[in-house]
Write the structure tokens for this entry.
Amino acid sequence: MTNEEKMILAIDKIYITKTIYEQLSDWEKSFLRGLSSEYRRRKSLSVKQKNILYPILKKHNVI
């Protein structure tokens, strides 16, 4: 499993864990929705996207 796949699984975990999802800011929710959708279409994330995503996942203890 690639690091990108692990990040997408972490996003999925956020969506199914109500307590984590409720802690996200509106911007984080929007960013994660867009990122997840884009990954499923393109099967890749840019370096910039990963650099923004990682701190969000770390902040909410999902990685």
Observations:
- The chain has one domain: 3-59.
- The helical segments are 3-16, 18-23, 26-42, 47-59.
